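Q: Structure tokens for this one, please.
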Amino acid sequence: MHNAHTSHYKAFNCLENCQLSKLTCLFYAAECGLKFMIMKQESHRSSEGINRHSFGHDLNKMLDHLRCEKKLRLPPSITLPNLKQPVRQRKAKQSDLNQVWRYGIEIKKIKDHDEITQTLENICLWIKEQR
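A: Here is the predicted structure, written as tokens:
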């Protein structure tokens, strides 16, 4: 899990023009890093031990489990661009960000996009500080 975190974070830092791929790598770097921290905290040798928690891709649940400071939490709901026909507002949970970016969907508001990106980077920095 630690190697996956490091690999995804390195890819995030190397990708320049592939914004959605870059963000997907950042999300997975944070997710793998948090799962590694939980494995370390609970003395598990493999990811099988953390599967009982049913975190899925919910970074906020992982952060809660690790008792991290609240400023590292992602917003629970993210606004996505409207569907064209019929016009409908779309939202996604923070735990769906990996799929949102993987399928090429942008976050609607630049401010939200910047805040989420910064929070994910802060999570990765926190993980680095904990090792």
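A few notes: The chain has a mean pLDDT of 86. The first strand starts at residue 77 and ends at 83.
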